[in-house]
Amino acid sequence: MRPKSSPFGLAVNIDSLIAGIIAFVIIQIFCRHSGIGISPDSVTYISSARHLGAGKGLTAFDGKPMVDFPAFYPLFLSALSLITRLDPVVYGPVLNGLLFFILIYLCGSIMNTFQPESKWYKRILLSVFILSPALLEIYSMMWSETIFILLVILFIITARNYFQKYSTRSLMLLSAVVGIACVTRYAGIVLMGTGGLLIILDPNSPFPRRIKHLIAFSVVSSLLLIINLGRNLLVTGYPAGIRQKGTTSFLGNIYFFGRILTDWFPVPATNTWAVIVTLVTLIICIVVFVRLFSKKATYHSYEGISAAFCVVYFVFMILSATISRYEQFTNRLLSPLYIPLFWSLSHWMVPSPQWNWRKKVPLATFGILLAVGLQYHQWLANYETYDGVKDAGIPGYTEDPFPQSDIVSWLQANKTAFKPGYTIYSNAADAVYFFTSLTSHLLPQDVFPHDIQHFYGENHHYLVWFYDVDNPDLISLQEILQNKHMTLLHQFNSGAIFVCENSKG
């Protein structure tokens, strides 16, 4: 008897291969004008990777230890730079294109095992994924989510492998994937929680083994995170940087969560719809989770593991955003949910081979209409995005006209104009570093009065102010000029440069 082909083999994944190649090409097209997209967070990753390669340790653009983000992504970039002898900004488009290719190929391979099996369902979802505005945004930027999303898919793969074998090796492999995810994004603890939940609830495993494997999984998967947090605590006194208390209510976060979902799905983006979509989507994921995990035969399915991740990620993100303050929900923050969520919401729409045509036709018609509506929705969003990036580049520090502004041109041409021993402050310190490689410090935030008073009392420093950068959390230029004696050195259309020789305070 001929052995069954692996679901990850090329023989059953020609469509996945083609979809992956298309995904790679799309990223190259998006990055053609000005290269990979660069945001403030991207500069932190890039500067840390460069400093690692130069033997300066894991330090960011301001010369301080990087603690706000985990260590793996800069380490990964530094290792690639060592191998290729290229800067991350140079190989960024190819790297992200390859990561997107791998993601799409693995997703296609996973869908080969969905029950009931459907090649058309697989191909429709692959087309949805490669045209997803949310995923295209992520893989057009130098962000750690490019790896984290891939690690989420690898978690789903290794979790199913563990539940099929229950071997020590498969458990350690699952733990390793989760451990790397935790030091790629701190949100990786969602995978730790999901894995622990699946292990302890497993009806196919004896309870003593569940306890034993749960302890082993928890210890091994948390090891890298403990080391990372311990290092952060040792060098700065904070395990994960300074975190402010949340300012958005629980219901408010449900609403903001829904606003992103309404961008993903072709539904109205009103306040009421945003809340309804969030709650309905969460309920569907819970129902799918309970239905699949209540049966021993489907407990270890990819669909079930995906649904479990969706439920845990939903709850974690809404609760953490309520407790701790960070930016309102964006495609970037919720992007790891995208693929597992579409699996959870759609896999049950595939008609069973045992059904008669009276059942198959209505369900298949409903699914096709949804897919057409979704793709039309995505096509319009992508067309609008591409219309901008083809002429101006990806939004961020590489987008025209930011790098062509008069203040950036002056900074690049006059790096040596800054006196040695003088500190450079800026409302966009990451931009100063990105365009000049000069160490620069971000101005203090309004919520830290001690840091503000310390800044006002300092002498011998420069202030580089970008008019096009809006960061309301920082002290304003007007406030600075009212509290410090600043001498204007250069005035530009896009900014100004000041020097402080002697402070008032």
Identify the notable features of this structure and list them briefly.
mainly alpha; 2 domains; 20 helices; 5% strand; 5 strands; 5-stranded mixed β-sheet; 505 residues
Summarize the structure.
The chain is mainly alpha-helical and 505 residues long. It is built from 20 helices and 5 strands. It is globular.
Can you tell me the residue ranges where pLDDT is under 50 for at least 5 consecutive residues?
Answer: none
**Percent in helix:** 55-70%
Mean pLDDT: 90
Q: Major sheet, described briefly?
A: 5 strands, mixed
SS summary, helix count:
20
How many strand segments? 5
> How far is the first residue's CA from the last residue's CA?
86 Å
Q: What is the general shape?
A: globular
Write down the domain tally. Answer: 2
Major β-sheet strand ordering: 2-1-3-5-4
Radius of gyration: 25 Å
Structural class category? mainly alpha
The proportion of residues in beta strands is under 5%
